[in-house]
Design goal:
It is a single chain. The protein has 157 residues and is mainly alpha-helical. The chain has one domain. Helix content is 76%, strand content 0%. It contains six helices and no strands. The chain starts with a helix and ends in a 10-residue tail after the last helix. 18% of the residues are buried.
């Protein structure tokens, strides 16, 4: 993860995960935070899936990003649909607006992570590091070292 965008996506994913943990804990205690969970058990399962997938997103694996995108797409897609229908009917409330914003963020972060890892896959297969390539990918230097013989006469007792 050498790009600033990759780090920012990971940081925003952890921040959104922490926000949803706080919202879930407060909802389970009976206090309603900004956007209550749609289903408490599914939200808890999604939180566990998310933390595992975010840890593997940092290592640039594609399968956890797909799982992360599907899990959030299914959960927050339904949440988005449930909050957009009342708005289209003219029943706009602050709770619906905040839930819609949370659902949009919940879908936008995995999509950004998916495209970031997908576009970074080519660079992962053929990494270029100018600090070490001059030594490891220089065949002329390797041949000089291989042809050179050790002419020192070491004494051993």
């Amino acid at each position: 993860m050498k790009n600033l965008s990759s780090w920012l996506i990971a940081i925003f994913a952890f921040m959104f995960w922490g926000f949803r943990v706080v919202a879930t804990v407060l909802y389970s205690m009976g206090t309603e935070f900004v956007a209550p969970p749609m289903d408490l058990t599914m939200e808890i399962a999604l939180l566990f899936i998310t933390i595992i997938c975010i840890c593997f997103i940092i290592t640039r694996k594609l399968l956890p990003v797909i799982i992360y995108l599907l899990a959030h797409g299914l959960y927050y897609g339904i949440y988005l649909y449930q909050n957009i229908i009342p708005m289209l009917n003219g029943e706009t409330t602050l709770n619906n607006s905040m839930s819609l914003l949370v659902a949009l963020i919940g879908i936008a972060i995995p999509v950004a992570a998916f495209f970031d890892v997908l576009l970074d896959k080519n660079r992962k297969a053929h990494p270029v590091d100018k600090q070490t390539d001059w030594f490891y990918k220089n065949e002329k230097f390797d041949r000089k070292l291989d042809d050179r013989a050790d002419k020192n006469q070491y004494r051993t007792l």
